[in-house]
Amino acid sequence: MVNLSTKLSTAVGDKSAKPLQKAFGLHTVEDLLRHYPRRYAEIGQPTDLSALQVGQHVTVLAEVVQATVIPFRNQPRRSRTEVVVTDGTDRLSLTFFQRPWLPKVMTPGSTGLFSGVVGVFNQQLQLANPDFEMFDDTGDVSASRLARGVLPIYPATAKMASWSIERAVAQCLDTIGDLADPLPEEVRAAHGHLEVRAAFEAIHRPRSIAEATVARDRFRFEEAFVVQTVFAQRRHAIEQQRADTRAPVTGGLRDRFSGLLPFQLTAGQEAVAAEIAEDLAQSRPMHRLLQGEVGSGKTIVALLSMLQVVDAGAQAALLAPTEVLAAQHYRSITAQLGDLAKGGMLGGADGATRVRLLTGSMGAKARNASLLDAASGEAGIVIGTHALIQDHVQFAELGLLVVDEQHRFGVEQRAALVDRAEVTPHVLVMTATPIPRTIAMSVFGDLEVSTLSELPAGRQPIQTTVVPATQRPAWLDRAWERVREEVARGRQAYVVVSRIGSEDVSGPSAAESETRSLVQVHDDLVAGPLADLRVESLHGRMAADDKDRVMRTFGAGEIDVLVATTVVEVGVDVPNATVMVVMDADRFGMSQLHQLRGRVGRGSEAGLCLLITDIDADSPAVERLAAVASTTDGFELSRLDAELRREGDVLGARQSGMRSSLRLLSVVRDGEIIEQARTIASAVVEQDPQLASHPTLAAAVGALEATEAADYLERT
Predict the structure, then answer these.
(1) CATH classification at residue 442
(2) CB 399 within 8 A of CB 374
(3) Which of 119, 221, 454, 578 has a beta carbon 3.0–4.6 Å from 268's, enabling a disulfide?
C-alpha cells in the first residue's frame, strides 16, 4: 500500500518516476494524482484536428486513413513512413523515419493516440516522429481502457507521453490506501462534493465526461477553499490583535492640511478617507487595500491618513518599491505640506511634523539623519524603499504602515515592519492596478478592499494610438514629429523602453530579441529625429543621486524628452509632460501600459500616448494593444487583461505560492466558486480558528503557506 506522501520512485519505480520529476516536478504520489488530465477523449469521438496550433505539444485520438512507406531516392535501405489520420472531418499527417513496419500496425480504420509537437510541412499540419499507442481488441490494458469509453489526456512532453502518465496514475490508484480529506465532511455533504478517494478515481478513470466533471468541480472548489482558509485565518489573527486608536484630532495637521488643498476632493476620496479614518480610530489594526484608477488621488487619501496618525502622537511609514518612486513621494508630500513638514526647522508652522526619506543608496550623513529622526520620533512621516524594513531601522512609535504598489511586495515584507513594532500598527496598502473583485479575493484576500474609480476634476483626456512601425514607417516618423511639436509648445515627453542595454538579453532568447534598448533608443534619437532637443536617460541602475538629479531636472522643465525604463511607471508626477511614447509596446502588459499612459495628461493639457510596435498585424499581442487604445477605463482594461493573460501572470510573482496550488481553479473565470469558498472558509475558521478538528485541512493550509514563504525567500 502507498499513501499520498509516498515517493514516486517507491510507488511506480525509478524508470517512471525520474521523467515525471524532471518534466513536471512531481515527487510524491499526491503530486502525481494532482497532475490532472488536461481533457478527455471519448472513444468514437476523435480529437478536433482543426483546433490544433503550430508549436503545441498535443495528444490526439484519431483514426488511420492510410500508411505508406516511401524509400529515399538513391538510398534503398532508408525510408520514411507517411501516415494520414482523421477526426472524420480534417486530416493530419504523421511522418516517421526508418519504421517500415508501421503499416502492419497502423492499418486503415484502426484507432490510436498520437503525441508530438505540431509542425507544418508543405503548408499542412503534421507531427514528425510522434509517440503513439494503437488500440485493438487483443491487449488487456487497451481493452479495459476502451471499455470505459473515456480516455484521460494529460499534460505531457516528448519524453513522457500521456498514456505513460496514465499508467503511472493507475498504478498509484490501484495500491493507495485510505485517504484523509482536506474538505470537512460537513462541507462536502452540504455542497454535494465527492470525498477525495472517489474524486481521484473519477477524475483519472472516469466512465463518462459527466463523472469527470463532477470530480473536477470538487477539486476546483478544494483549491479555492484551501486558499480562502489561509486568508480567513490571517483575517482572524488580525482581528485578535490590538492596536492603539488613532482618532482624528480637531484642528490637527490633517484638518490644517485639508484646508490648504487647492482643489476639492472627489466624492470617492471623501468616502474612502472617512472609511479609513474610522478604521484608524478602532482598537483593532486596520488591514485595508486601497485600489484606484491611475490619477484617482490615492496618495492624497493616504497622506490624510498619515497625518491623522501623526496627530494622534504616532508615526507613519510609506514603503515604495523603487527609489525613484520613494523620492517622488518625498518631494510631492513635502511640497504639499509646505511649512507643516518643517517641524523644528526655521519657518516651520506651529505643531508641524517632519518628513524624512530613507533609501539604500543614500549617503551616510543623510541616512543617519533619517534614522535618528525615525527613532526619536521627530519624523512623523518616513518614506523609503526596502531599506525601511531592515532590522536596524527603528521607530519611536509606528502607528501606520502605507505600502505603495502592494503587488511588488510579499506578505512577509509587510510583516517585517508590522511584527517589529511594540504596538501593532495599522496597515494601508495601495495599488494603481485596478483588480476585478474575484481576483482581489485571491490575491489580497487578507485585506478589506476600498476602491477609487472616480477621477479628480480637471484631469485631461489621453489619446492613445498604436503605431505599427514596420508596416507603416511614416507613422513612426510622424510620432517623433508629434514629440517635437509638443516640445515646441513648451511641453515634455517620455520615451519608455523595456530594457537598458544589450546585457539585459542573454541565453536562447538573445538572438531572437529585436527590442530596442535604452542606450540604443537614446543614441538614435539624439543623432536623429530629436537631435536638437534636450534628451536625458533614466533607469534603475543609476546611482541614487543621479536618478534624483534627472527627475528634479525633468520636473523643473529643463529636460525635453526623458528616455526611461519602467521606473517611471507609477507615482511619477510631472504635469507638464504631455506625450508618452512606449517602444516595443507589445512587450508590456495591458495594465502596465495603462500605468505608463497615466504619466501624461496630469496638467492642463491633453495627453498623447503612442504605442510603438513591430509585430505583425495578425499577432495576438495586437489585440492587447488595440484594447489599451480603445479605452482609458482602467477597470475595464483589468478585466480584459485578466481574460487575455495566463493565470500565473494574473496572480503575479508575489502570489507564486498560491499560484502553484491552483491547477484547476481560474481566478478569472471561477468567481462564484471563490466567493462561495470564501464564505464557507470564514465560517469554518470562525468556529475553529486553529483547525484543530480539521487536521487534514490544517496540513493543506500549512503546506500552502510554507510554499508561499519558500517562494518569498527565493525572491529576496
Answers:
(1) 3.40.50.300
(2) no
(3) 454
Tell me, what CATH number does 155's domain have? 2.40.50.140
Q: For 220-253, how does the pLDDT look when each residue is reduced to its tens digit (9 = 90+)? A: 999 999 999 999 998 998 888 889 999 999 999 9
Report the length, in residues, of the chain.
716
Distance separating alpha carbons of residues 523 and 373, to the nearest angstrom: 43
Answering whether pTM is above 0.90, one says no
* Interatomic CA distance for residues 142 and 398, integer angstroms: 68
Contact partners, residue 386, CB within 8 Å, separation at least 6: 319, 360, 413
Is the same domain home to 262 and 231? no
Q: What gap in Å lies between CA 513 and CA 501, rounded to an integer?
A: 12
Where is the domain boundary, 452, 487, 522?
Answer: 452
567 and 599: one domain? Answer: yes
User: What DSSP element (H or E) covers 151?
Assistant: strand 150-153
Rounded-to-integer distance, Cα 421 and Cα 395, Å: 8
User: Grid coordinates representing 45?
Assistant: 469521438
pLDDT for the residue 410: 57
Residue numbers of the domain that contains 376: 253-452
Set of cell numbers at residue 225: 477553499
Q: At what angle do helices 298-311 and 267-280 cross, to 10 degrees?
A: 30
Identify residue 608 by its one-letter amino acid code.
L
**What is the arithmetic mean of pLDDT over 121-131?**
88
The total number of structural domains that make up the chain: 4
pLDDT tens sequence across 494-540: 999 999 875 554 443 333 346 889 999 999 999 999 999 999 999 98
Q: What is the pLDDT of residue 337?
A: 95
- DSSP-derived letter for residue 194 is P
Strand partners, 382: 317, 356
Check whether 716 has a pLDDT greater than 70: no
Q: Which H helix or E strand runs over 81?
A: strand 75-86
For residue 160, give the DSSP letter.
Answer: B
Asked if 201 and 173 count as a contact pair (C-beta separation under 8 A), the reply is: yes
The string over 651-679, giving b where at least 16 C-beta atoms fall within 10 Å of a residue's C-beta and e elsewhere, is beebbbbbbbbbebbbbbebbebbebbbe
